[in-house]
Amino acid sequence: MSTLQLDTDSWMRWAEPAALVGGETRAIRLLSADERSRYATTLSASARERFLWGRLLLRELVAEQIGSRPAEVTIDARCTDCGGPHGRPVATGPSDDARALWLSVSACAGMVLVATSRGRPIGIDVEPCAVSTGQLQAIRQVAGDTEHPLRHWTRIEAVLKADGRGLRVDPRQVRVHTHGAELEGTLYRFAEPDFDPRFVLSSAFGPASGPAAGAGPG
């Protein structure tokens, strides 16, 4: 696994699921009752694996930021609309420092990535560079016929996650520019490190805010 500083108070950590094999028992022990239920009822083995590793990486990164242990960090992803376990992840820990962190998680085939940002909403999205013609056409239908549709899509997804409502907002409402985007009058800026040539990554930062709050997907 690797860690990179995105901004002054923002960090991301990523790992390939294959590199984490063997740590399932430890990772499962860290899960809350709701997380274990979600893990157990996820039908796709690959999706189940990515969820488990995402929760592990997120706990580890939060624990490092607040000077705690992963076992002392709880991740709540309760949706504020329906109460389901698919909302924006919010961390709690032995101190209030955890609540000051905004969290985001993204995963795709071969990669799991998490991020934290202190006092500023963050959203991340990672996608594999190798996509089928059908997938690319589907992306163009939503992201528009841009020169770099996959990059355009990761930017849109990152903004929607930073906004907190995810795909409950029409992706076409996100107006993407070269270094930032606008959604309903709120401006977002991007950070897009070249962390792995096999993937496209976008992270979006919203305006400074107070403690993190749950909503849509993170």
Which fold does the CATH topology refer to? Answer: Ribosomal Protein L22, Chain A
Q: Share of helix among residues?
A: 25-40%
Question: Low-confidence parts, pLDDT < 50 over ≥5 residues?
Answer: none
Class computed from helices, strands and strand pairing: alpha+beta
Mean of residue pLDDT values: 88
* CATH homologous superfamily designation: 4'-phosphopantetheinyl transferase domain
Q: Structurally, how many domains make up the residues?
A: 1
Strand order of the largest sheet: 7-11-10-9-8
End-to-end separation:
21 Å
- How much of the sequence lies in strands comes to 25-35%
What's the oligomerization state? Answer: single chain
Overall shape: it is: globular
CATH architecture group name? Alpha-Beta Complex
* Overall CATH class: Alpha Beta
SSE order: EEHHHHEEEEEHHEEEE
- The gyration radius over C-alpha positions equals 16 Å
Task: Summarize the biggest pleated sheet.
Answer: 5 strands, antiparallel
Number of helices: 6
InterPro entries: 4-PPantetheinyl_Trfase_dom_sf (IPR037143), P-Pant_transferase_sf (IPR050559)
GO molecular function: transferase activity
Keywords: Transferase
Organism: Leifsonia kafniensis
Characterization of the model:
The chain is an alpha+beta fold. The chain has a single domain, classed as Ribosomal Protein L22, Chain A, CATH 3.90.470.20. The protein is built from six helices and eleven strands. It has helices at 17-20, 24-30, 33-41, 45-66, 133-143, 149-163; strands spanning 2-7, 10-15, 74-76, 90-92, 101-108, 111-118, 122-128, 175-176, 180-183, 186-191, 199-205. A five-stranded antiparallel sheet has the order 7-11-10-9-8, covered by helices on one side. It has a four-stranded antiparallel sheet with strand order 1-2-6-5. A hairpin with a 2-residue loop joins strand 5 (101-108) and strand 6 (111-118). Helix 5 crosses helix 6. The longest helix is centred in the first third of the chain and has 22 residues, at 45-66. The protein is globular. The model has no long low-confidence stretch (mean pLDDT 88).
